[in-house]
Every structure is written in C-alpha cells, then in structure tokens.
Design a protein that fits this description.
The chain is 65% helix and 6% strand. The protein is mainly α and 251 residues long.
Length: 251
C-alpha cells in the first residue's frame, strides 16, 4: 500500500518503482520494485533492450559514410536540412502529443541535437567519415561530466568503473588517431574541432533526454519529434544563409 496526502492505494504488481514520502514528509522517494528487478543473465527481459541498443548503434554507424556521400552530392547545409526536414515531417504527428511540462526542456534538447548534426555535417566535408565517427565517441566523456556537474552524481572509479574504462579507452584511441601521424599536432584541423563539437552536442542531448525519459517514459516519440523539429529548423536556417552566400568562406 502506498499513501500520500491522506490517500492510500494498492501498488500495481507490474510497477517498475515504488514511491513513498520520506521521513520528513517533505519529498517523494522512489525505489525499484523488488518484484520487477531484471537480473543479469540470458533472459529475454535482460538481453532484448541491450540487443535493441546494439542494433541502433549499428544503424547509427551508417550515418557517417552516408553523410559523407550526401555531402559529395549536395552542399552540407542542403543535405542536413533535407534529411532533418524529412525526419521532422515523418514524426510530426507525435509532436502534438508532447506534454506541456516537457516542451521547453525538449526544445533545449533539440537545440543541442541540431548542434550535433550540423557540426557533424560540417566535419564530414573534408574529414574522413571514420575519423568523425571516432571523435564522436567522446560522448562517453561528455555525458558523465554533465552527470557530475549538473546532478552532482558520484562518479568515482569505485562508483562507475565501466564509465572510467570507456572514457580512458576513448581518450587513448583519440590520441592515437590524432597524434599518431607524421605531422603530430599539425595533422589536427578544423574538421577535428567540428567533430568534437558534434560530441558535445549529442552528449548534452543524450543527457537531457535521459532526464526527461526518467520522468516521462511514455514520451519517447514526442521528445524525438521535438528534437527532429528543432534540428530541421536550425539546419533550415543554415541552408538559407548558405544559399544567399552569407556563409561563404566560413567553412
């Protein structure tokens, strides 16, 4: 039984969390329901979300070579604007289902998503797709850094060893990729900088999305629709400025 403000109800058996008032009666504390904890193992409940994430990662990886091919056929601004507009149109029905309480946060999240895609597209103009993809992996550093700075989350090695291992591996890989050539630091160009800004944009977007999804798990598609809409808007502005020659010589 869960009680709050004098009203008591029976907790649902399938509820992922059980929430109750703290001892001071000043806030609500939520804990995972012991009856619905998915234990690690070879069960469908445990493996299916991870398999789905792996498939998403594979599909996301095709974004870089295809983006490079599009940039070879069209100006980067036009290619980005077109793809974002098509995505926004496809998801537009869900945009109207976004809860008012999430609109401002989702729009902010979409702004960082747009920054990620625009930076990525600019980087792909003169930087190999493999390099842009690898530098984009710096999101494994951006997300934990935001968790510490914003949420004051404990991120010591004892608290999150997998995060530290991923971050160190990523930094070593980036160092080898960028400094392993004959030119050393001289090989680093503007495309590398845009690739890093891509990671900042996407990493911040992932962080904000996680916070929204934790509060409203049913809002996945509306949140995604807002991200695509904001990306389409910003890339559209970029394409218009590029079309009238306002961006000549900048990239």
């Amino acid at each position: 039984v869960i009680c709050a403000r004098g009203i008591c109800v029976v907790a649902e058996d399938e509820a992922p969390e059980i929430c109750f008032l703290n001892e001071d009666m000043t806030g609500v504390v939520c804990e995972p329901s012991p009856d619905n904890v998915v234990e690690p193992g070879f069960s469908v409940a445990y493996l299916w979300p991870r398999a789905l994430l792996l498939i998403c990662s594979v599909l996301y990886g095709t974004n870089f070579p295809l983006g490079r091919l599009m940039n070879d056929a069209l100006p980067a601004s036009a290619a980005t604007s077109t793809r974002m507009m098509l995505a926004a149109v496809a998801l537009s029905p869900f945009l109207f289902q976004l809860k008012p309480s999430l609109r401002q946060t989702a729009a902010l999240c979409g702004t960082f998503t747009a920054r990620g895609y625009i930076s990525q597209s600019i980087a792909l103009v003169d930087t190999p797709a493999a390099t842009v993809s690898f530098l984009g992996a710096l999101v494994v550093i951006v997300c934990p850094a935001l968790a510490v700075a914003v949420d004051k989350k404990k991120m010591g090695f004892a608290d999150a060893p997998q995060t530290w291992i991923a971050a160190i591996t990523c930094l070593i890989g980036v160092g080898i990729l960028e400094l392993g050539g004959e030119g050393g630091l001289g090989d680093v160009g503007w495309g590398d900088l845009w690739s890093v800004l891509q990671a900042v944009g996407f990493g911040t977007s992932f962080f904000i999305t996680e916070r929204m999804m934790a509060k409203e798990p049913s809002q996945a598609l509306p949140i995604t629709a807002m991200q695509c809409a904001m990306s389409a808007a910003f890339s559209g502005i970029w394409a218009c400025l590029d079309g009238v020659g306002a961006m000549d010589g900048l990239f």
